[in-house]
Write a structure and sequence with these properties.
This protein is mainly β and 108 residues long. The protein contains no helices and 7 strands. 9% of the residues are buried.
Amino acid sequence: MDLIENNKEFKIKADAPGMDPSDIDIRVKDNTLTISGERKDEIRETDASGEVIKLERAQRSFTRSFVLPRNADAEKISAALDKGVLEVNIAKKEAVDEGVRRIEVQSI
């Protein structure tokens, strides 16, 4: 997976060849983004009479989780799948309150 950051957003790009949007699940919980996918294939070969001579099943799955940065807007996440590449866009918040405040030290 590729992680990309620009001034407006964070992007995650992942190869997902042969997958449909219904094969992919994206969730956010407790400031963690989880992307998972699963694809099942069945390859069936038959002879001239229609008898099955070979049957193969394959299953591919993946799961990746990312802790979102403080300036990520978890309410503004979108995803698209185009030609086997999944792209997840996470908008950045305009201003982030860092929650840091300087305490003046006084002489007594």
